[in-house]
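G., before I forget:
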Amino acid sequence: MAEKFTLEEFFNLLKKYNVEELEGVRIEGDLEIEIEPGAAVDPNTINALLALTQYVNLIQEFGNFLYHANMALTYLQRLSQAFGIQLPVAAPQVQVPEVKPTVEVPKIKLPEKLKEAKFEPYKVEYPGKIEEVTLGATRSEGGTREITITVGGERSLAFYTFDAEMPHMPVIAIDVFDRRPMLAKAVREHYEDVLDDPAEWARKAVREFGADLVTLHLISTDPLLEDRPASEAAKTVEEVLQAVKVPLIIGGSGNKEKDPEVLEKAAEVAEGERVMLASATLDMDWERIGNAAKKYGHVVLSWTQMDINNQKTLNRYLLKRVGIPRDSLIMDPTTAALGYGLDYAFTNMERIRISGLRGDQDLNFPISSGTTNAWGAREAWMKDSPIEEDTPWGPRELRGPIWEIVTGLTLALAGVDIFMMMHPGAVAVLKEIMNTLAGKIAEKADENAWISMEG
Amino acid sequence: MKVKSPLEIYRYLPQTNCGECGYDTCMSFAAQIIERTVKPTDCPPLVKEAEKNPKVKKKLEELIEITSPEVKEVIIGKGDNAVKIGGEDVLHRHELTFFNPTALFYDVWDTLDDKEIDERCSKVVEYRKFYVGEFLTLDGIAVRCTSNDPKRFREVVKRVAGYGKPMILVSLNPECMRAALEEVAEERPLIYAATEDNWKEFLELALEFKVPVVVRSKDLNKLKSLAVTFKEAGVEDIVLDPVTEPIGEGLRGTFERVIQLRRTAILGEDKDVAYPIMVTPIAAWALEADDVSKAYWETVIASLFIVKYGDVMILHCLEPYAIMPIVTLRYNIYTDPRTPVQVEPGLREINNPSPDDPVFITTNFALTYYTVESDLTSGNIKGWLLVLDTEGLGVEVSVAGGQFTAAKVKDLIKETKIEEKVNHRYLIIPGLAARLQGAIEDETGWKVLVGPMDSGRIKGWLEQNWPPKEK
């Protein structure tokens, strides 16, 4: 303590230990630290200065012990360890590294390696199962179909194959009408040659457009149109049954008074073929339609207007009052087009499906969708937007099919098992995406190419 | 959010029923928090008290914590144009609602010349489609670095920033990304993407420039590992990209990964994967096919993940036939199912009608109403539009369901005093309500004309049918 330790001597000492001048930092006689104007001051520098403050304290002690240089070094090291500060003293060999790194603490502390983590997918299991329903009957089963189609059987949400196996793929029926219907141009052009011949129409739908089954709509029976008698319409049913070997769905005209009679007659001529009668609704004689299905061994489509409770009610009527077997009922909870109530249709179907999977015995039936309704959206058929401020809509022949595809795909995700569609392109694309989701398409493609592709 | 009952929230509130929040009682305010229509900070006394009292402050923070959404909300961009992604609480929209619509980013790339870049940017900025009383638009621009040249990327990013839209910067090269960030970090772009190979550099960039970052991996263990590492290093705004494979088994795998991530975040309460999910339908454009097929497939992938948990997307095709179904589906899926989309019933005067002009009637279902209203307005048709309260149902459904009846039409005619405003007694009803023609005539004494099935055809219909021939 007797010897006076000057600042000059201190710097000399630092030099001796190869300590360079601290950039931008001056140590005053009273050992206060100031930052020179213009020196970079960021939070890291401040941290570094905090470390320096400790350093300064040490320097004071250092001074006191200078006359015992070796002791001093030991002391510094001890302190350095105690404070956990990097000091210009690395080893007892009196080797002092630069002070500079002390100031330039790395800006951001980065971990050396990725932290290990294990992703544990949350498992979902439902207690219920959707009923399996078979359409069509082969000769040995009392019909004349060459193929039958089974839908339903799900134990998970649609295409959640990681939860449960998907026993049956959703299928696509193409609509056929027994008279010229109003059709969008983009649809009509594919059927121009068969519009007046339902049997040919059905054949084309199956052979050329890959329909899994065919829906024959007997709209000519509508009293507001030709008012064709039920017995006449039944002849068309026979023709179409002759023309194609896939299962059939038979629809009326939507006339509440006449449909029960029409569907009853159709059921009679199609006896044993296990067609689906479309449809029984709450506001028509569902009992008569249900009884026709039961009597002639068909499936009945239970159609309600986007109301889960009505769907429950009608299903119960058909099951309990009519006595429709559980393997002979399919539901149509109503399809609204993209942009025209698709949100309601989607949520209604999704709720119905989840209720069924959770064990609601009134709702665990396959779902059918009149996806052709998508063509009712003006975006699908109108030449261009009637709204002046709109960005022009683009060619309608490209708008229509994608409108039908997106409507169908959305409802596929809600759980639809049977799609009734019209545009062959839409049918093909929807099939492709459903096969993809079901894991039936092995292909893979480069998933990184888009990042750097020029175009 | 963790809490399910208003009671659990109520105990955090002042319980004074002061009404300052706009609700009569603290309990109804609590119920609104559950519904996510208000936030805890919308209670003025609670916020005021928290400023003074550290104990209350802690309580407020706890309340915010337990009422925060299951999935982290991330903001891309800044100011009025910023877009929020994530923030979801449920797996199915009927369980509550989905909150932040999938953000749609369309791409430009830096090997395009400036003119082409401007063209694409303008298309993104200008796109609009009228729907239910508003215009649907696109959210932002994704700039891809295809030059691998930091200088060029920086230049293009600067150019694109001039359009004022939120941006995603796409490059796996940290040097290019740094150059771009030095230019536009202020705009808070989302950076794409940190991978197993470049994560260190990207982590540094995310921290240094304080921007949201996408972490990308097909392997969900690795993806989670990236997210955890970034979170622990201090990155808050993380987006998960489980990698969009464009076809076949790859796409099926993508579907599985996206669903597993979201389901595990919400039902499995795994906070480490509770981030917004990125999907890149643009991957379809690397396939070998014609442009229409690629555009269709891109639209299919986009639709799939608008329904299933995609929070932000990068897309390529700017053709309106591809954009329109995507923006419409997004609107539909993200519409709040709790509030029926309806408008006020009553009488609307279209284009300053005179007493000689036609009287139309439609429903108060928002979609029907706005479609009819905009067709009349933009078709320069003068007329009187009666809006019937059908409880928010469309024409077809309400006619079938008994919400659109002759008796209700009569009441509406009376309430709106339309008989004092026109000097004729002709009512034009929607084509889909044709069956009510007789009943309405009997009930009201008006002559009923059946209009077209689609209001887009009213103009042509009027040319044939108005003024009515028989008086």
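Residues 163 and 370 of chain A are 28 Å apart (CA to CA). Residues 7-103 of chain A form one domain.

More on Monday.
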